[in-house]
Amino acid sequence: MHDFLTFASDADWLGMWGAVFLLLAGFALLMERRRMERARIDSVGWIPWTGLFLTFMVVGGGLLAVAVPGIIRG
Known about the structure:
77% of the residues lie in helices and 0% in strands. By secondary structure, it is mainly alpha-helical. It has one domain (8-73). The longest helix is centred in the first third of the chain and has 27 residues, at 10-36.
């Protein structure tokens, strides 16, 4: 694993960061669904999970869209 990270191309790095952002988007989606199913409707919370989900999804998808052609070419 250490050798892979040492000699990883820019496309590999972009792909890894894209995957990280998509995982963060999944976490934000999970937290938004958890907030929607809360017992006390008046306890709103302060984190904008929907905005974070959309931001992480767009950034992660963009990074993967840029990385995939480079990864395929090798």
